[in-house]
Design goal:
8-stranded parallel sheet; two-stranded antiparallel ribbon; 2 domains; alpha/beta; 10 helices; TIM Barrel; 39% helix; binds coenzyme A
Length: 297
């Protein structure tokens, strides 16, 4: 399966926003029980999200239904799990993960709850937000050797990390990410690839700026991210487009794969006066895989 390109956040306590799920066009939605829901609404949101999931069995979902639970070090996390697993979400986003051990703990809870609710073991995936506490970035490299079968990707967040380090902004004077945040973004990208899972770019907060979103998302894909968080339905189409290879890219990737196939075991080939070696072949195969096209060679 090609990686999920867009994950649209939907506050779990909003009937109006939940009603947009089936038409939003995202590859996945994340029904939020954490920061988008005020403390007084947590229990109601949990019930609403559980009912929403149960009304849409997995085999009748045009869009994957994920849930962002509350952080594991809050008592709400277990309440969230005990409720929402009954609805067989496709995955859970784990906010403020301190490292792979938190994902392992969540995975153990899921082993038991999937068994209790008669859901296929291991079928609920986990996407940790892997940079939201001060310790978390130091453990990013550990995901590669942690053997976490449910790990669906790694994503990063700049808002909670800013709060965690007492930063009054996460931006530099030029309006781009400040150094600390750029660093953890790069580390997330590297850690995801080291672990062999998709790297998911964080949200683009200026949700009325379509051009900025598209340019930023194209840049993220060029760097090796394979999808992005959305916060508003109007962001979904731009994100999907930015993370889908263009016809020209697909065409080029096909030619690279074909040239290597024709050259037998060659480690390097020439195409129109340019040298291509094994990393180019790998890239071409990745492009075809993300376009869900089986490489011919
Ligand atoms: N999911 C589903 N529907 C959404 C939506 C979302 N994330 N964001 C907006 N909509 C809907 C609105 O309900 C509105 O519906 P209507 O046309 O039927 O009235 C329509 O899209 C247009 O909304 P708009 O007025 O442009 O935005 P807003 O001011 O109502 O909401 C936000 C702005 C940022 C509050 C909203 O986009 C939102 O809640 N985003 C998700 C926030 C979140 O979950 N954050 C947690 C992770 S950081
Ligand atoms: Mg947060």
């Amino acid at each position: 399966m090609s990686p999920l390109r867009s994950f649209l956040f939907i506050p779990g306590d909003s009937d109006k926003k939940l009603s947009k799920v089936d038409s939003c066009g995202a590859d996945a939605v994340i029904l939020d029980l954490e920061d988008a829901v005020a403390t007084a609404n947590k229990a109601a949101a949990r019930d609403k999200v559980t009912a929403f999931l149960r009304a849409r069995p997995r085999e009748r979902r045009p869009v994957q239904l994920w849930v962002r639970i509350n952080p594991l070090d809050t008592p709400m996390a277990l309440d969230d799990l005990a409720a929402v697993v009954a609805g067989a979400p496709n995955g859970l986003m784990l906010p403020k993960a301190n490292g792979p051990e938190d994902v392992r703990t969540l995975s153990h809870h899921l082993d038991a709850l999937e068994a209790a609710f008669g859901i296929a073991r291991g079928s609920i995936r986990i996407l940790p937000v892997a940079t939201e506490t001060a310790i978390a970035p130091f453990r990013l490299g550990d995901y590669a050797s942690a053997g976490l079968e449910r790990l669906a990707g790694l994503t990063w967040g700049a808002e909670d990390l800013a709060a965690a380090v007492g930063a009054s902004t996460n931006l530099g004077p030029d309006g781009r990410w400040a150094d600390t945040f750029l660093m953890v973004r790069s580390l997330t990208l590297l850690a995801a690839h080291a672990a062999g899972v998709p790297a998911i770019e964080t949200l683009y907060v200026d949700f009325r700026n379509d051009e900025g979103l598209i340019a930023s998302s194209r840049g993220a894909r060029a760097e090796g991210f394979s999808g992005r968080i959305a916060i508003h339905p109007t962001q979904v189409a731009g994100i999907n487009a930015a993370f889908t290879p263009s016809e020209a890219e697909i065409d080029h990737a096909r030619r690279v794969v074909a040239a290597f196939a024709n050259a037998g075991d060659a480690g390097t080939v020439g195409i129109e006066g340019k040298m291509y070696d094994i990393p180019h072949l790998k890239q071409a195969r990745q492009v075809l895989a993300s376009a869900q096209i089986k490489p011919a060679g």
